[in-house]
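Regression test case RT-17, inverse folding.

Input:
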């Protein structure tokens, strides 16, 4: 039996092989955590889930029960290390916080949300983070940094945002 959840509408779908759906469940320590659906009771609309313990910040693997209105389905895009969270499907609080948490543990302090740069304070020195401006911009024509239309950001960073702002200012000056 495969459980399918789509925007709080729960249906029970039979399949030949046994699959488990992944969901976000509320967690008192981390806000949300990923869990595997073990069983779904159609009558009570309750999910039996088991929190994952594969990550450094999910330490307990305990079976819990939640009503379908308290959980969110996990989209495969939620598990990627995305530089821009706008590329994520089915965006809500759980995958946003999880993406920022995972990037924080990987010392990736900058994440984009469209044109907005989200910066997390690591409270430590990260080697190489501010060493070279050219690490964070891709220049087809390296003769001019400011005002060059060929500049495009390769990674989210305060240097690339500053360059985009300065470039827009120079290009739109009247």
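Golden output:
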């Amino acid at each position: 039996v495969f459980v399918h959840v789509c925007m709080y509408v729960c249906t029970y779908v039979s399949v030949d092989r046994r699959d488990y759906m992944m969901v976000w469940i509320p967690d008192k320590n981390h806000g949300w955590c990923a869990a595997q659906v073990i069983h779904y009771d159609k009558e009570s609309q309750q999910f039996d889930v088991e929190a994952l313990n594969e990550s450094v910040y999910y330490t307990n693997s305990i079976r819990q029960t939640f009503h379908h209105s308290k959980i969110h389905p996990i989209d495969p895009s939620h598990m990627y290390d995305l530089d821009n969270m706008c590329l994520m499907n089915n965006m809500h609080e759980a995958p946003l916080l999880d993406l920022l948490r995972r990037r924080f543990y990987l010392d990736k302090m900058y994440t984009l949300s469209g044109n907005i740069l989200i910066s997390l304070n690591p409270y430590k020195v990260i080697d190489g983070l501010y060493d070279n401006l050219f690490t964070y911009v891709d220049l087809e024509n390296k003769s001019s940094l400011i005002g060059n239309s060929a500049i495009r950001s390769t990674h989210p960073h305060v240097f690339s945002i500053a360059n985009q702002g300065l470039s827009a200012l120079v290009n739109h000056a009247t």
